[in-house]
Amino acid sequence: MHIRIDIATQRLDLFDEDGCCIRRYRVSTALNGAGEQMDSGCTPRGRHRIRACIGRSAAWGTVFRGRRPTGEVWSPAFAEAHPGRDWILSRILWLCGEEPGVNRGGRVDSMRRYIYIHGTGEDQPMGEPRSHGCIRMRNDDIVELFELVSAGTRVEIVE
């Protein structure tokens, strides 16, 4: 299995071991566009792997902070009471760059930048760049994808 994320089309494709696309999802990448620098708010390009899969037994809409469940569950009313939060919900696939000097090491390290594929509030649009660097998905979609991949799965992010 491997994942290809296309920033231009705001799409995530999951391919099986034969190279056949078996799932396609709308996503939302960084509002600031593509880029690898620390604190840029950009989505990093290049070859990555899933370093960790977090939240396997979490309820749909579970709110995470620092990769830990807070005990809160997202709802439109909860979101309205906490405006401006960058919601990390349901599941987290934490990415690790594979290209030294491009997305691994120093000020371009995707893992140290906490770049994830994760769920977000249902009020957030998909198909347009809005994130702070991560790849956002609908909660139903990230829960489904989470069950199909594992740590070590290859992820390619292209413009």
Automatic annotation (TrEMBL):
It comes from the Bacteria. Keywords: Cell shape, Cell wall biogenesis/degradation, Glycosyltransferase, Hydrolase, Peptidoglycan synthesis, Transferase. It holds the Pfam family YkuD. GO terms for biological process: cell wall organization; peptidoglycan-protein cross-linking; regulation of cell shape. Residues 1-158 form the L,D-TPase catalytic domain. One of its GO terms (molecular function) is glycosyltransferase activity. The active site is at H118 (proton donor/acceptor), C134 (nucleophile). PROSITE patterns: LD_TPASE (PS52029). One of its GO terms (cellular component) is extracellular region. CDD domains: YkuD_like. Gene3D superfamilies: L,D-transpeptidase catalytic domain-like. Pathway: Cell wall biogenesis; peptidoglycan biosynthesis. InterPro entries: LD-transpeptidase, LD_TPept_cat_dom, Transpep_catalytic_dom. SUPFAM superfamilies: L,D-transpeptidase catalytic domain-like. Belongs to the YkuD family. This is L,D-transpeptidase. It comes from Parazoarcus communis.
